[in-house]
UniProtKB/TrEMBL annotation:
GO biological process: iron-sulfur cluster assembly
General function of this protein: A scaffold on which IscS assembles Fe-S clusters. It is likely that Fe-S cluster coordination is flexible as the role of this complex is to build and then hand off Fe-S clusters.
InterPro entries: ISCU, NIF_FeS_clus_asmbl_NifU_N
NCBIfam families: iscU
Name used for this protein in its record: Iron-sulfur cluster assembly scaffold protein IscU
Pfam families in alphabetical order: NifU_N
Amino acid sequence: MAYSDKVIDHYEHPRNVGALDKDDGAVGTGLVGAPACGDVMKLQIKVSAEGIIEDAKFKTFGCGSAIASSSLVTEWVKGKTLDEAASIKNTDIAQELALPPVKIHCSVLAEDAIKAAIADYKKKSGKDEEAAE
Ligand code: FES
Ligand code: FES
């Protein structure tokens, strides 16, 4: 199976690889695993006092599509509000990267990771009333 040019680009030049301080109150950390293949993705966001995501980092132990999905998502969420970031769909990621059907779960992992990072941030900052809806 051939990877798309965009997957290869993100795989060879991943954006925002690294880690933020998980004990920083402005940082939310999402750690998710894919049951289908055992791959693991860690995605972190740093949120400004105004509620804007000002930084994002990831570490992914997984396939090229998972790395590309997380790299793309870190680019997309920067400058967005938490609500905007939470509305990113795996289908948007899969479409942007032209993922084939067997690789769709890699983009689901990225959507789950950003949602988990947002939930962690809200929990830490006491803004988790929305999480109960
Ligand atoms: Fe091999 Fe995900 S199944 S990297
Ligand atoms: Fe499992 Fe990509 S995350 S194959």
